Each structure stands twice: as structure tokens, then as C-alpha cells.
Amino acid sequence: MHCFVFLFIFGCVNKALCLQSSCGVEQELATTQGAAGCGWNLKRPAATVEHRTVSVDPDAKYSTLANEEMPTVQGEEKKLQTRSDCLMVSSGYGILLYGEGPQRPVHVDSFYMDIQEVTNRQFQNFVNATGYVTEAEKFGDSFVFEGILSETVKNQITQAVAAAPWWLPVKGASWRHPEGPDSNITDRLNHPVIHVSWMDAVAYCSWASKRLPTEAEWEYACRGGLRDRLYPWGNKLNPKGQHYANLWQGDFPSHNSGEDGYIKTSPVMSFPSNGFGLYDMVGNAWEWTSDWWAVHHTTDQQHNPKGPPSGTDKVKKGGSYMCHKSYCYRYRCAARSQNTPDSSASNLGFRCASQDQR
């Protein structure tokens, strides 16, 4: 039995979606420096599994500009209704190069949103019921952050991503074995499932009679009813010294002090929820959306936008436990990144949405 919870959010036709608004930036964000980090665009090349090579699209411009930091599913449901209008992006801090602008009005209809990322336990139930095999398992490897690998696994690796050497292709890494063959999820069943491609996420959501959220829905849910704020909880990263998300503390990529209690994924719902009762909307694991990636947007008002009709990459949102202000300032509701649909990594997961109650 799944322990699954949904949030019903009203986004009525006469109410505008708060999408990608980034006003009121903290003073610490004034400088921009660094290189790409947790949002690095890892891609699988179009090659056979046996003879594939490591490939990645350069993404350094982002951090230079951005630098900071089912069947039988049951559960509670919450109903919230929007009360104010607002605009998409950034009258303050936004990365236009990556499509965080221009500011524009958007409307969304009512929808349900999972209050947590899909967990290992939930994904395991799906696999047990269907026999599904993920793309990482088919390819035989997946990307893992070097800092969480055992020395045994690291000594067996001969390739790396040149521009981001902390990303290593690990044979045998998958949702069952997050850091390779010598790891498992026995004590992580309530952590977000990772090493899942966009296609894997779609398969799970379909099995659960749901779908991936659009980028617009995801960002509306992230904001939790707030307007013109950086994070799901406001503009201060750590209000009153409290951590509100699983992010990187210390020096990326060499030292994670774990001040928030974690150095890799954390159990879902470990940090405070936003105003809609949603957990881990930023940090912990990146989350796939249904939209194809694009960086040019109309300023016209949109109703239930779903992104371009086709593309090569899918949009992911929210950042991960690897995000740090000096390398990956993508734990803002407005921030966005992309990967090819068959990509998987040790910081990439998802949550589901639906138009009707499930």
C-alpha cells in the first residue's frame, strides 16, 4: 500500500499563476562567479549501450550568471484556492539566458500535486507490480556525484565529465543501487527515488493514473501562495538560522559540512513544507516536468502553458542536495535546467500531478 498524499490547488481561469518571479533578492546574490554544479546538463549520447561515451553540454554560462546557491494509491488531500494575481519572472533576479524571463502572466486550472517526491518505496511497489526496468538499468550505468562514492567504486572508473569532473558514470548505478553495486536502498525507502529518467517518471505516473506536472504547475506549487519571493518560504535562505531545504553547505565540490543534517538525499518531508503543504520543492532531488526545454517565451498571457510541442531536452526544476550558492543557484522557484529524456543521475527524481483526485 502506498503512503501517498496529494494537494488540490485551485488555479482558476481568472487567477494568474506566479511563475518564475524572483524579486527581493538577498544582498549576498550581488556577485556572480563560479562554474556549473548540481544543474550540470548530463546527457546520454546517441550510441549503443556497449560502446557509449560520456557526453555533456557545456553549462558554465549559467553559474557565471547565476551564482548562489496508482493503482491503489491512497492518502490525505488538501484543497487550496489562489487569492491573488501575479506575473511570471523576474522583475528582480532572473537568468534570462536560461529562460527565466521575460515577466509574463500565466493562468492554470485546478490540479492535484503530490506533497512529496516519489520515494524509493513507492517506486519499488511500482516495479514489483509491473516488472518495469529503468533506463539506467538498461544502459548499465548512471551518473553519480564523486563525493558520495566508495573508494572501491571510484577506482574502477576510467571516465569523467571533463567540465564537471565530480560527475562519474558508474556501472551498476540505478535506483536500487544509488552509489553503484556496493550500495542499496534498504535504509532509504523513504528517500526520493533517483536515477530515474524522464521516461521512467512518465511510466510511474501513468501507472498511478497521474502525470508529470507542467513547468507552470510545478512553479505555482513551489511558490506556495507567495508572490515575488526567491524560495518556497520567502527571500531569506535560512530564516532565523533554520534550514528549510536539503542543500550543500561548505565548499563545493570538495566539502559538504552537512549543517542541514544531510550530505546526500534526505527522507522526504524532513524540512518544513511551503504554504500549500508541499515538501522538498527545492533541494533534495531535481524534479522532472512534462515540458520540453525552451529559453524564448512570449510575453502574452498564457492559459495552461505546456511548453513547446517538441524538443531535445526536458525541463527539470527545484535543484538538489548538491546545490550551493557558489555553483548552482537553482534552488529558487524560478530557476530551471534541462536534460535529455533518457538521462539519469544521483540527484534527479520527480513527483506526480493530476487533473482529478486520485
From TrEMBL:
Gene3D superfamilies: paralog of FGE (formylglycine-generating enzyme). Its main location: endoplasmic reticulum. Residues 338-358 are annotated as: Disordered. It is found in: Endoplasmic reticulum lumen. GO terms for molecular function: formylglycine-generating oxidase activity. Residues 338-347 have a biased composition (Polar residues). Keywords: Signal. Residues 95-353 form the Sulfatase-modifying factor enzyme-like domain. Transmembrane segments: none annotated. This is Sulfatase-modifying factor enzyme-like domain-containing protein. It comes from Monopterus albus (Swamp eel).
